[in-house]
Amino acid sequence: MTFLRFVTTLREVERASSRLEMVRLLADALRDLPPDEAPLAVNLLKGQVAPEFEGVEFGVAEKEAAKALALALGRDEVEVVRAVREKGDIGAYAREALPQRTGGLSLRHVYDELRAIAEDAGPGSQARKRERLARLVAAASPEEAALILRIVTGRLRLGVGDATVLEALALAFLGDRSKKPLLERAYNLTSDLAYVARLALEGEDALRAVKLEVGKPVRMMLAERLAGPEQIMEKLGSHYAEHKYDGERVQIHYDGERFWVYSRRLENITHQYPDLLEALREVQHEPFILEAEAVVTDPLTGEMRPFQNVLNRKVKHLTPELLEKYPIKGFVFELLYDRGEALIERPYRERRERLERWFRPHERLELSVKRYVETTEELVRFFDESIEAGCEGLVCKKPDGEYEAGKRGFKWVKYKRGIAGKLSDTLDLVIVGAWLGRGRRAGAYGSLLAAAYNSDEDRFETLTKIGSGFSDADLNEVLPRRLGPYRRQERHPRVWSLQEPDVWFDPVLVVEVEAQEITLSPGHTCAFGVVQQGRGLALRFPRFVRYRDDKSPEEATTTREVVEMYHNQWSQSR
Ligand code: ATP
Question: Which sign does the torsion angle of CA 103, 105, 111, 117 carry?
């Protein structure tokens, strides 16, 4: 396929009026590709040349890309860098500045060149990257160049979610959108969209045969929430509850030689935990995949410290001083793979037994504390003990529940303390629009339109307008800087809204929000018609808490969870 056809498809996708149309456009383009190019196109669609977990980055800042553009144009570097900064979008500037020509690059050539740019490292790589990029841009049409420059600078944001890509792949290669669950399963086990595309091309049997692999992150299983202990007992019956530790969730892979650590968003964060890996290396010698909560402990007392402490390890170069100041302990709660055997389809009880047999003690490693509870009283007692031990509460686990990769279901239910006059849990919402401020807020955003994620429909449904909880710095600097790149003229096709904000955004930024109550509302689309005909759900007295950069938009609170929270809000017993 020519790169131009790909570029044209993406422009159409950006302008699509509905998600279904996006799916159809993508499926048509994928079907037209030679089979070996489909996986490349899937990667490029996400603005990458390898799955996210491989951490292959272009390492080209906007200024460097502008210098490459100057080289391609044969113009003065300083002048082009300044012009790009003024325009605020390197793609748009390239489209205007480059001479009209047909280009005619092939998709494979562009992919190979981009990959070479990403993989070039070490001394002199900056200059080599710039020259290679300049050659590519010089051979491209203005439209092609615009897309290439957006990709390398990390500014390609189509708002095409993974679910949309999977649906397009199902339609293109299995002939039917309803075959999506097959692809979803493969994706949940491997987290690699391009790999799933390759399998889909081979057919349904290849997709069914997918197994988890050491080194490829498994999309994490997530917990649902319920109002309180009675509801949990009612839903799960007698079950195992575990302390809920307040750290960073890590999935650790070991193939007998090498370790990989993946975050909740499946980023490769191996470099953040050298001490934890050293501990594992001392006590485990066979391949495994485990999940644990990594918690910073007090260097003197050994007590657990709150989550925020983990953030101190999120630096490029962890020094011995930092490791000493923020020592880590891993509370292991899952064993997904043990010496060549995948365990995720086994019931929790069996996985846990296996984990307990497998586990070897170490001062940096502990098993999550668990207890079998049969009555509400026992559950409440265990909850109180967990708080006393410095935990956030409990995660209640169904004894016969398998590990459902990539799903949030009732096989795990979290039990946290509610605060009087507030919803017991905060919500993670996606910003989809904003109103401009007046008075003291003139020139900044006054309030933001926030949405929950409807995972069945793969769309974002609004449920609140947030105006409070922001500092002046948030309003004047942080929000414009963070939201600026996602601004768009019209509503994004995956956003469903009855509100008309002054500006729209691609659904990208996730924020944590607290509120007092969930009410019925004719003005919001969240779970519209689910609780009552003609009404959606809305938050009362919403307040911004913090940015959730660790969550992708598809990991925001789902509309189904909001409905649960709506029903449960009056029955909070604690
Ligand atoms: P979520 O991960 O459910 O989207 P979140 O990141 O806000 O939401 P919580 O809702 O507070 O986290 O709770 C779920 C998280 O609790 C898990 O992702 C995991 O990181 C953490 N956790 C701590 N202890 C355990 C445990 N024993 N079993 C499972 N998860 C645990």
Answer: negative
